Amino acid sequence: MATESTPLTAHAGGDHGGRAMSRRRQLITGVMVGAALAALVVGWLVWGGGKDGSDVDVDVPTINGEALFCGLRNHEHGYISLPNRKDDHYFYWYFPAENATGSEPWILWLQGGPGCSGVAAIAHENGPCRINRDLTTTLNPYSWTKRANVIWLDQPTNTGFSVGSNDEVDATEESVRENIYWFLQEFLKKHPEFLERPLYLAGESYAGHYIPATAHYIWEQNQKSASGVPSLPLTGLAIGNGLTNPIIQSAHMLDMANNSYNIKIAKDEDLSKAQEAVQPCVQQIEACQTNTSVCVEALQFCQTSLMAPFVAQHVNPLDLRMKCADVPSSEGCYDFKHVTAYMNSHAVHKYLNVSSRVKEWQECREDVELRFLMSGDPMKRFDTQLVDLLNEGKLRLLVYVGDADLMCNWHGNLAWMEALEWKGQTAFQTAEEHAFKLSNGTQVGLARDSPQMTFVRVFNAGHLVAMDQPAVALELISRFIDSKPF
């Protein structure tokens, strides 16, 4: 019988670099955000000048004699100016499906953070080309473009290569959802063929906020059927290791102390002290739902109290199997400096026609994240945004979770799904848990499947499932798109 410790598919290029500290903010709530929250322990309208960045590339420049991005040519990149904003320009990178037949769906990938670049996911997760530590590149045999047309988006405003006015920055899901909606509408003007194809929103970590909020906004706008604005063909949502209901998920934050990897990640006395903080934490987050003024305090208390036992033992909060060389913040201790170096090379900026307003590409922007933290957005729940769409009976939801993750662990994700009140609640609650296997028969996790809602616990993976288990991630999204059982 396979278990969480069973070795699975090796990484497709690159590695974790797990013992080096870096600026990794691919997650959720508590992080080091500077003086304002110092008490936290863990803390196609082309714009920008130059050639039209949306054209299929012909001449591919090189770094150290190697063609950029694996020499791939069939892709599109550039800026889309948001029609709902005065000076907001979202950078996107679109790769069409490989061996396309003309019927493949399209996926919009949203990275977490808040404030982490979608382009980063191309480099070390589910894109067609991985960037290696020596700045060479390797084709990813498990790219999601094997099954769909995929857009990787840099958002919110000023994330990654995206640029915008400081007067129009984002701090809550209200602006995020509207911006993503109008980005999609503008993208469709360039690719009207996608109007008749299923649209999937996918992402990880803080996308557990972005995706439900955006999906509900799309649903609302589709009901209005405004003249000249097409309905978006939203079909499914896929959330990996997401933060969706912080009330329930915080209540399960300590569950990973007893993990199937048999790794002791905290001292008993520290866990006992943290356990005393669980109920006060839950109460504070509940109060935040109706009183935003207490949300920052709730964030500070919960993350400081509940993560303390793990931080004290230098455990990577994004992958309990890893120890950090230094005391980690909740950003973990991954090392992606090679990706940053690659993306900031002159050749890449020129090739992608990056705006001159972008002085430096950062995988995750602290200033973007800080605005969200100070608004109280991380402690708001967004699972209820899914109810209208699920009750309509047309939309399907996939939640997949690497079971070595502490911050957005599988216990909490399964718990909020079971607790969500909608027409199919009983069907999901009573669905039988069963082995999730690849086509070769290898068990790679556990699944619970109902007609509209699926939960998959992925073995041998942390917060970044597509990086740790790329073959499994591709199998997940493929079955979801094909409506095949898990």
TrEMBL record:
EC number(s) on file = 3.4.16.-
What enzyme category does the UniProt record give? hydrolase
Q: Which InterPro entries does the protein's record reference?
A: AB_hydrolase_fold, Peptidase_S10, Ser_caboxypep_ser_AS
Keywords from the UniProt entry: Carboxypeptidase, Glycoprotein, Hydrolase, Membrane, Protease, Signal, Transmembrane, Transmembrane helix
State one molecular function term (GO). serine-type carboxypeptidase activity
Q: Which residues cross the membrane?
A: 27-47
Q: Does the keyword Secreted apply?
A: no
Looking at the keywords, is Transmembrane present? yes
Task: Family membership, please give it.
Answer: Belongs to the peptidase S10 family.
Give the matching PANTHER family: SERINE CARBOXYPEPTIDASE CTSA-4.1, SERINE PROTEASE FAMILY S10 SERINE CARBOXYPEPTIDASE
Entry protein name: Carboxypeptidase
